[in-house]
Amino acid sequence: MRRVAFVVCLLSLSPIVRADSLPIGTWVRRDPQQGIRLTMTVEAVGTGRKLTYKVVGPDAPGGIVSTVLTQLDGKDVPVLANGKPTGQTMAIRTIGSRHTSTVLKFQGKVTGTSKSEISPDGKVLKVETTATAGTNGKVATSVEYWDKK
């Protein structure tokens, strides 16, 4: 269950990166769910972005820090948790001026997708996520909102 929650967290975070207009800085998910606080810091690295996610909650009171280094070109890149490989990859692609799509895989198998839309003022992000939960293949969907800090 923790892996499913982590996958959904990563999917909800990943699409807010856009090479052309996303301001560098920190984003915070609105309305923390089940006591889980999610933040993401976006840094420019060359022509790409480094995403540093911090997940703090009951199962991780000290936090889990995950990082992804992406060129925003739709190619799979590794997801590291606390500096170690997770077996997960993300493929983040810019679609138009305010939209992205992301595919998350675990050991090469697609476990979820998301699409996002950033507000015209660049301060609010809407993320729609679809993820496969558990071994039974049940699909979960969610819509979340994030605020630029």
Describe the protein in words.
With about 150 residues, the protein is mainly β. It has a single domain (about 1-149), classed as Calycin beta-barrel core domain (Lipocalin, Beta Barrel). The chain is about 10% helix and about 60% strand. Strands 1-2-3-4-5-6-7-8-9-10 form a ten-stranded antiparallel beta barrel. The longest helix is centred in the first third of the chain and has 12 residues, at about 1-15. The radius of gyration is 14 Å and the shape is globular. The protein starts with a helix and ends with a strand.
Task: Compose a concise summary of this entry.
The chain has one helix at residues 2-13, and strands at 25-29, 37-45, 48-57, 60-70, 77-81, 84-95, 99-106, 109-118, 124-133, 138-148. With 149 residues, the protein is mainly β. The protein has a ten-stranded antiparallel barrel.
Number of domains: 1
How large is the share of residues in beta strands?
over 45%
Largest sheet: spatial strand order = 1-2-3-4-5-6-7-8-9-10
Per CATH, the superfamily is: Calycin beta-barrel core domain
Low-pLDDT segments: 1-5, 15-21
Helix/strand layout:
Blueprint: H1 2-13, E1 25-29, E2 37-45, E3 48-57, E4 60-70, E5 77-81, E6 84-95, E7 99-106, E8 109-118, E9 124-133, E10 138-148
Antiparallel strand pairs: 1-2, 1-10, 2-3, 3-4, 4-5, 5-6, 6-7, 7-8, 8-9, 9-10
Keywords:
149 residues; mainly beta; Lipocalin; 10-stranded antiparallel beta barrel; 1 helix; 61% strand; globular; disordered N terminus
